[in-house]
TrEMBL record:
<feature type="transmembrane region" description="Helical">
    <location>
        <begin position="645"/>
        <end position="668"/>
    </location>
</feature>
<dbReference type="InterPro" id="IPR011640">
    <property type="entry name" value="Fe2_transport_prot_B_C"/>
</dbReference>
<keyword id="KW-0342">GTP-binding</keyword>
<dbReference type="GO" id="GO:0046872">
    <property type="term" value="F:metal ion binding"/>
</dbReference>
<feature type="domain" description="FeoB-type G">
    <location>
        <begin position="21"/>
        <end position="183"/>
    </location>
</feature>
<feature type="transmembrane region" description="Helical">
    <location>
        <begin position="578"/>
        <end position="595"/>
    </location>
</feature>
<dbReference type="GO" id="GO:0005886">
    <property type="term" value="C:plasma membrane"/>
</dbReference>
<dbReference type="GO" id="GO:0015093">
    <property type="term" value="F:ferrous iron transmembrane transporter activity"/>
</dbReference>
<keyword id="KW-0479">Metal-binding</keyword>
<keyword id="KW-0406">Ion transport</keyword>
<dbReference type="InterPro" id="IPR011642">
    <property type="entry name" value="Gate_dom"/>
</dbReference>
<feature type="binding site">
    <location>
        <begin position="134"/>
        <end position="137"/>
    </location>
    <ligand>
        <name>GTP</name>
    </ligand>
</feature>
<dbReference type="InterPro" id="IPR030389">
    <property type="entry name" value="G_FEOB_dom"/>
</dbReference>
<keyword id="KW-1003">Cell membrane</keyword>
<dbReference type="Pfam" id="PF17910">
    <property type="entry name" value="FeoB_Cyto"/>
</dbReference>
<keyword id="KW-0410">Iron transport</keyword>
<dbReference type="InterPro" id="IPR003373">
    <property type="entry name" value="Fe2_transport_prot-B"/>
</dbReference>
Amino acid sequence: MLSILKKKRCCGQEDETQSDLERIILVGNPNVGKSVIFNHFSDSYAIVSNYPGTTVSISKGKGWIDGKEYEIIDTPGMYSLLPITEEERVSQSYLFDNDPFVYVHVVDAKNIQRMLPLTLQLIEAEVPLILVLNMMDEATERGIEINASRLEQQLGVPVICTTSIKGEGLDKLEEAISKYSFQHVDSKVVYSRGIEYAIESISSLIQDEYGISKRTLAQLLLQNDKVAFEAISQKGEDVDAIKKIIDGTEKEYNNPLNYVLTIERQAFVNDIVENVMTTGKRDVTLTEDVEKSSRTSLRERIDGLLIHPVTGIPILILVLYFGLYKFVGGFAAGTVVDYLEGTLFGEMINPWVIESFNAAVPYPAIQDLFVGEYGILTQAVTYAIALIMPLVGAFFIVFSIIEDTGYLPRLAMMIDRAFKKMGMSGRAVIPMVLGFGCSTMATMVTRTLETKRERIITSMLLSLAIPCSAQLGVILGILSFSGRALFIWAIVICLDLVLVGYLSSKVLPGASPSFFMEMPPLRLPKLSNVLIKTYSRMQWYFLEVLPLLVVASVLIWIGRLTGLFEIAVQLFSYPSQWIGLPAEAGFMFLFGFFRRDFGAAGMFDMYNAGLLSDINIVVAAITLTLFMPCIAQFMVTVKERGIKIALGMAAFIFPSAFAVGFVVNYVLTTFGVVL
Ligand SMILES: Nc1nc2c(ncn2[C@@H]2O[C@H](COP(=O)(O)OP(=O)(O)OP(=O)(O)O)[C@@H](O)[C@H]2O)c(=O)[nH]1
Ligand SMILES: [Mg+2]
């Protein structure tokens, strides 16, 4: 099964390399199964999950279809050619810049009424196109029947029915691709006179060639699309004349042109659907419809329980208790780490490695680099394999199961109101929860959020208060000595998160984001997907973490040879002492600078060595959780938000972590709290 993971580019790695092969580009709304189809055809793997917005950057792979090799490209979901969120923009830019063999537009067969507008837009764009009606199993289950050949006639492009998770219909898709040749198809939509006139006038002004038809480009311009304007300015078109036409058209209509175009296009889609959907209800699973729908089936009843706060919050607590506390904190951080770090590495592997290495290499400095206290083998490799791997692995398993059920969009809906108070919408739940796995990944997922303000607040809270899985595992493991200690840690972190979120929403200008999220059906997780996903995320994680741990070991080694390490530890020992910790805790924060999990590992060592009092443990756990984002996350924040915002965040987070640690230590010691 894992053999399909020949080459991994997942979890947000962007690949800009171009190949000479002909390209097949998968496009479509979010959560329709594009990545499942990508994984079937290509030698690469893209994460598949049951919520909209899983794929936020382009994934590329190669695949053979009927004896010919193609480059296969998976794109983030998009609702329309006019993007709102950043991940939609990533997909849109692909329409401008690429000249593929064919676009495979994947839609959810049970929701064609909502998805065909994009098909009509792609037809208008005059791009080579095959339409895939995926999730036929769920459509059939709901009594929906679609006459695919009639749809094919109406649209003038090939239409293939698939149930991609079972592999059904993919052979037909393969055949359609191998036989495909581009044929011009006329637009299926005729807009009202004013719009058609504007489209024609703008098209006649456009001189150059773009990746899309002039008709589509004109529509994007009419809707004031930023990228379309950049494209025509770069090519020296007559922007002023075009703007004049747009202004005139805007005045003719009472509503924004974006709205007018959408409504008019939808009318054509409704006619088509009327013609091709022979039986069954049209199950449009939009947020507001979920509440209205009658809760007859078991699935719908569970749905209701998850969304209603009275039952939803206890369910959330149960998920956290069993998923995080018992499985990640108890089983992985307790049993597995104790065995791996204490027994396997501590008593068996490392003593043997140290002895053998020292016997083979009789130079103390080199011995120190590889098998010393902070050595590459004795520290970096041990931390990575014995401590971080079980924690991250356990978290990713739990997380993959939760993701595949479709629980996260429900959680998002339930929590939306609380998140609004912090300037975010329920949508931000997904990057925030993903942050418990790895905030670096999660920071990229903030692309799925609608407004810049929401993206900034979410990245900030991710950097500030969301511990990553390894850190969380260690902290839960250590704090499990006392329920009270765990409670204080959780309350302080939550309060800090809410307070900073609330204040940021007051300080940052901009309107509150609206919450609009598709509600995918609840599904039973597929074991193979959970395993492949966990494996691929762990692989990605280790490619990131192990080199950094090795670099840290080497830097510490150089630092100790030159005396700089002592100075750095000394520097960090001051703030450590301010918050009541022993001076040695300085090295824990120094490690935390590299990676959050590395800092947590340092804390784990100090705890094992008996250097921390009960209050020290709580204060250290809080400060480390709130401490700097790790280097990788900082870099991603720079990339996504810009250097100024990233530095601003760091400048706030660093002192505030110690300030909170100071206050907690002060309160706990002054009131003599016993844990
Ligand atoms: N029942 C059923 N589920 C499917 C089918 N195809 C995909 N899925 C499920 O639909 C969900 C979404 O699949 P993805 O491949 O991640 O969808 P995507 O279009 O790549 O989504 P984004 O990356 O968010 O744009 C997953 O839970 C899949 O298991 C299908 O044919 N039938
Ligand atoms: Mg995807």
